[in-house]
Structure to design on (547 residues):
């Protein structure tokens, strides 16, 4: 890791939303909705849909036609055509065929292989898609034909085991784009025009001027960003597919090109193509920061000659204190570590990568925030525990926070380990930084709440969600450098009906000695539960539960 990156890691933990100099097919300032899933359909992430499995809407089932109706995908547009028919019902009476598109597809269904059986997918509603990067465009014939507008569909799913019908897209907008070609379980876009997928779209739970996109998958988001998996007059289909997969790998922080996400939904992100990156550069190398110096250079993503998408370099992780799901990365994200040619990217500083050597390649340059801190519990005695983000650690040994053996408390924030009487006991998880940018806090609104730092007159510490330190009597707010005593931010709620949730953070008390502890689990059997404080993020979340 370069010296400038080390300096940011120590002191730069805030940023603003996307913006700056970007080019066509790159994100505007209003969006940062990357995510963890390709499709955003949760249970049905793995399904690929045969076009040949089409069942026409029930009112057309009795038509007498020379051959079965055929579903096709043309530049991301799902259509059904039929010729040589008699006895067609209204509104096709007297015609010899029909054409279904958008709202006239309501009632049509498809079947896809799913977990050793099949799932029936029924189009329940169609509407014009409103992308996350622009104002809605009317779905006129001209706009649809030119690709400026596209339909999106609300789809229901029913499996063969007779389980209740459920929405295909349970989070986000509830609607999905119909997208050509299937995907492998490892996140590879496969060239097979006989299949398509439904890609769930996010919803804006903010406002037009202050958007906050929730749910959905990165397939739909990358299409909205301008990286659709189909070509046009000046872009062959193969090039478009390569660019689309590159976008989805980058959006999920899939560092090893293996279908494993290393981020959380909606994490702020800025990215651009090689020409835009070179336009910002003065020497042919990527600039170290964008957005007034607050987004740090994360990675340069490239599709290699074998078709694998991985970073050419990795300057920082998108979440500093999440344990990596990636399998190919050396644990150290430091400069000078030799690259593992067969299994992983070079981890040389990205500032040293000459972009002019890649100007014509399928390439993306990503920038992200230092957004999180590691929350670690330390043990002083059998009854006294300190949970804090004020820690120092050997970063080469700790890309995540599962192993706490070399974490040391740094309660005075001078960068040096405190007295060895505090022994690291357990990593509680990541916590959103106390320096979370005001724009992001505004976007998240009631989704998050502050966790306050409290002490008593003998120096005992606790974290709680009250700025009066309630319900701990004898404790008072411990503010440092006008930080209002905020240790960081936690999520305020979860969906109790869903699985794969965030980890709850709780306040505990020793009933006889009066010691408090903040932890995801009781520090010992002597402590009793006091209250829930909030929730910590973890890899593997359901969509729409994070930033």
């Amino acid at each position: 890791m370069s010296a400038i990156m080390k300096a940011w890691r120590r002191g730069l933990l805030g940023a603003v939303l996307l913006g700056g100099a970007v080019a066509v097919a790159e994100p505007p300032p209003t969006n940062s909705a990357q995510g963890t899933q390709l499709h955003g359909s949760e249970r049905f992430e793995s399904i690929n849909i045969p076009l040949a499995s089409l069942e026409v809407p029930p009112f057309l089932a009795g038509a007498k036609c020379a051959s079965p109706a055929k579903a096709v995908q043309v530049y991301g547009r799902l259509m059904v055509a039929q010729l040589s028919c008699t006895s067609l019902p209204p509104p096709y009476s007297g015609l010899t065929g029909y054409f279904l598109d958008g709202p006239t597809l309501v009632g049509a269904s498809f079947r896809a292989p799913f977990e050793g059986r099949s799932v029936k997918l029924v189009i329940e509603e169609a509407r014009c898609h409103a992308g996350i990067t622009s104002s809605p465009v009317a779905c006129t014939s001209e706009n649809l034909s030119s690709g400026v507008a596209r339909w999106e569909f609300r789809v229901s799913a029913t499996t063969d085991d007779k389980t209740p019908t459920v929405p295909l897209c349970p989070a986000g907008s509830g609607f999905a784009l119909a997208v050509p070609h299937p995907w492998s379980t490892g996140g590879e876009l496969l060239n097979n025009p006989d299949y398509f997928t439904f890609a769930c779209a996010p919803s804006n739970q903010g406002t037009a001027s202050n958007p906050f996109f929730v749910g959905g998958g990165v397939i739909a988001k990358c299409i909205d960003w301008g990286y659709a998996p189909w070509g046009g007059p000046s872009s062959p289909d193969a090039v478009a597919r390569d660019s689309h997969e590159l976008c989805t790998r980058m959006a999920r922080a899939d560092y090893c090109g293996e279908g494993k996400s290393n981020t959380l939904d909606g994490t702020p992100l800025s990215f651009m193509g090689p020409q835009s990156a070179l336009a910002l550069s003065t020497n042919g190398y990527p600039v170290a920061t964008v957005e007034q110096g607050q987004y740090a250079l994360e990675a340069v993503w490239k599709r290699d000659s074998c078709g694998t998408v991985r970073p050419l370099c990795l300057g920082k992780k998108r979440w500093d204190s999440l344990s990596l799901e990636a399998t190919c990365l050396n644990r150290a994200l430091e400069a000078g570590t030799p690259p593992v040619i067969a299994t992983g990217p070079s981890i040389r500083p990205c500032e040293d990568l000459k972009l002019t050597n890649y100007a014509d390649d399928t390439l993306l340059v990503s920038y992200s925030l230092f957004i999180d801190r590691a929350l670690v519990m330390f043990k002083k005695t059998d009854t006294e525990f300190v949970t804090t983000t004020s820690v120092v650690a050997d970063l080469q040994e700790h890309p995540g926070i599962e192993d706490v053996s070399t974490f040391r408390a740094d309660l005075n924030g001078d960068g040096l380990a405190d007295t060895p009487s505090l022994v690291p006991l357990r990593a509680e998880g990541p916590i959103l930084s106390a320096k979370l940018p005001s724009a992001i806090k505004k976007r998240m609104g009631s989704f998050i709440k502050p966790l306050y730092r409290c002490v008593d007159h003998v120096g005992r510490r606790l974290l709680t969600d009250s700025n009066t330190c309630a319900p701990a009597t004898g404790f008072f707010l411990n503010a440092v450098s006008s930080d209002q005593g905020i240790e960081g931010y936690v999520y305020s709620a979860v969906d109790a009906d869903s699985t794969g949730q965030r980890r709850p953070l709780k306040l505990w008390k020793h009933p006889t000695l009066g010691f408090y502890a903040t932890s995801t689990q009781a520090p010992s059997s002597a402590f009793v539960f006091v209250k829930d404080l909030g929730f910590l993020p973890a890899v593997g979340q359901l969509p729409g539960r994070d930033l």
The longest helix spans residues 237-251.
